[in-house]
């Protein structure tokens, strides 16, 4: 087991400000229609925010690598599930309303 690692307050403040900026960026991007890329942009920003929280606030950056591997395997399977959903949604025929 690795030794406890204490980060300076400046690091926490920088990460916090970055998370606030990314949240504001998410809100600003949501106001613009990017078509089919809306979900991709939202997931990309959310992934960056989740990585920052995991690395610094959950201390995965300085923890045993097995914990990081568990977290990354969870993200991998999340991406696989999103891929299955995208393939399934893309294979469905568009129905036109008769109304």
How many distinct folded domains?
1
Query: Low-confidence spans: pLDDT under 50, at least 5 residues?
Result: none
Oligomeric state as shown: single chain
The major β-sheet equals:
none
Fraction of helical residues:
55-70%
Structural class: mainly alpha
Q: Can you count the helices? A: 3
Beta-strand content: under 5%
Instruction: Give the overall form.
Output: flat
Detailed description of the structure:
The protein has 99 residues and is mainly alpha-helical. It has one domain (9-91). Helix content is 70%, strand content 0%. The chain has three helices and no strands. It has helices at 9-30, 38-57, 65-91. The longest helix has 27 residues, at 65-91. The mean pLDDT is 87.
Sum up the structure in keywords:
single chain; 99 residues; mainly alpha; flat
Helix-strand layout with pairing:
Elements: H1 9-30, H2 38-57, H3 65-91
Helix pairs in contact: 1-2
Quick summary of this structure?
The protein has 99 residues and is an all-alpha fold.
């Amino acid at each position: 087991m690795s030794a406890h690692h204490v980060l300076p307050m400046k690091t926490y403040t920088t990460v916090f400000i970055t998370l606030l900026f990314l949240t504001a960026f998410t809100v600003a991007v949501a106001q613009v229609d990017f078509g089919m890329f809306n979900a991709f942009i939202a997931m990309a920003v959310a992934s960056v925010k989740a990585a920052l929280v995991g690395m610094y606030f959950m201390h995965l950056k300085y923890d045993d690598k097995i914990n990081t591997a568990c977290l990354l395997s969870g993200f991998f399977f999340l991406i696989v599930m999103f891929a299955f959903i995208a393939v399934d949604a893309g294979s469905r025929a568009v129905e036109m309303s008769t109304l």
